[in-house]
Amino acid sequence: MRFSAAIGAGYTVGPLAGLILSAAVSAGIAADHSFPDDGTLLLEAKPMKDSKRVPILQIESKGAASIDLWCNSVPAQLVVADATITIILGSPTGKQCDPDRMQADEDLLAALQQVVSWRRQDDLLVLQGEHSLRFHFSSN
After folding, report:
1. Which pLDDT value is given to residue 88?
2. Rounded to two decimals, what is the model's pTM?
3. Checking CA distances to 42, which of 18, 20, 81, 112 falls within 20 to 30 Å?
4. Of residues 55, 51, 93, the one with CA closest to residue 75
């Protein structure tokens, strides 16, 4: 009699444990795909000639952000709703760099203004518009 009760309990506990484990894994996956509220991200790009610098997106609380471009920096506000994003850029700093860096800044600013959606993919934040911009989460 006791053996039957133990088997019956196993049929109830097994599926329940599986359901709880599945919910926990799903919650972990969902958390990994949320928009980062705080963090430093590096643009997936090769540094320009004679430099180690690549653009950096620094996201702070409530959508405040700063973007270090190839030469200058610009403050920004990120407005995120579900998978859509609007990037409102402030005025860039006025540093003078070589023409290639200045043009790269202009190109990146134009690409940022065209961003309309975002997604997370592993350790990437992908900003999508006319061009996709891929930022890696910094491990520092």
Report:
1. 97
2. 0.75
3. 81
4. 93
